[in-house]
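Model the whole thing, not chain by chain.
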Amino acid sequence: MALSVDELKEKILEKALKGPKAQLYVKDFYACDPESKPRVIKNAANELVKEGKMVFWSSGSTTMYAAKGRAKDEEK
Amino acid sequence: MSKHETPLMDELENGPWPSFVSDLKRQAEKSPQCWDIIGQMELSFKDRMTHWKHGGIVGVFGYGGGIIGRYSDVPDQFPGVAHFHTVRLNQPSSKFYRTDLLRKLCDLWEKRGSGMTNMHGSTGDLILLGTKTEELEPLFYDLTHDLQWDLGGSGSNLRTPECCVGKARCEWSCFDTQALCYGLTMKYQDEIHRPAFPYKFKIKFSGCANDCVSALARADLSVIGTWRDNIRINQAEVKNYLNGASKSGGGAIPSRADKFNIKAEVLDLCPTGCMWMEGDTLKIDDAECTRCMHCLNVMPKALRPGVEQGASIMMGAKAPILEGAQLGTMIIPFLKVDPETEFEEVVEIIEKCWDYWMEHGKNRERLGETMQRIGLPTFLRVMEIEPLPQHIKEPRSNPYVFWREEEVEGGWQRDIKEFRKKHAQ
């Protein structure tokens, strides 16, 4: 059974905080719950950004996610 | 007065054509950071490398697109462009602007940024070039509250949808491109403003195969107007072209206007050779016509699109990224585009393709690259579309589409001895 949104957010944040990579593609979060649809996972990750726990890092052509404080050049 | 010595940049002011360097110098009188742009470009010319670093976490609250971070890697030399972020604005459909709104926008951009614009980027957006991080939120507030203007898409978002002038000004448009573009822009606000995909996704709408927004070359999903009945022919007007009363191409090319030759300009250039003359009467074998628009462009008074109009849907176009450039692949040859149903036919196709691509597309892989990787037969199956003759680009160039066992009566079971009796070795 798919995780609830809160459980999903918790898993996503854990991966963003503790994973070896600081910046992650949205697809990297799909493994947090193989039962959830990609769109549900994307919405959960975007909600974490809205809550200020994660940030978007955009190159202009691609957007990645990072836990707040872990993104490249975040001091800027 | 120039802040930096820029002999190489100054060279770009020579010649009869307009120069962006002259524009920058003029703008620098109002926005002094423009001197630093010219100075940094001069340094890039000398060093033969860019001094821009792009990318970052800059944005406005609630949005995950529309702002692209840009920084100078030599900020001590050029402090005016230490931060020089790009802002993308969602252009109005068909790029119809009110001049008073453009003036207000330019005033606002001179207050909050460099004053430099790019009308328009390849996705179609209106691009504002160069501002500081601390100006982003005030700029966004003024844009949305005073001008009712929203940001466009960037990054792994749905990019700002773009359309041609459509039925507003063009008699060839086979569907209301503005209505579809506006309708889908409003429907997919979340996808435009927040990243949703493995990579960028562009949708463009052209009313006919002249494709004035280059949908076929750029868009992951292009909706291009077409018709499925016959080209409407006005034989009296055909005669006017033949006797010189009407000018080729509406007189658009003066050197050709007085010397119309229907054989050289129309019949011999028809890509399928489906047109011929019987005396003064023009004949078309519409079953062979690919709706390329060439004959309509040359003889606009005599020929018009048919009355049963709709659109073709192509997918997978892109500029060179991981692989080379690709034009869109024909997926649906004809589809009715109906505002009464809120374009549900188009929406269904878009979302089916997104669902698959979000799950199976690799990171930084455009839809066209996914299609190439999995093959057209698999992609058609994903889209639940039966293979059609129109999917064949030309004989033996596309991958073959094979029957599957469940599509064949009796499956693959057969009596090999019985088979060999009929097919002796």
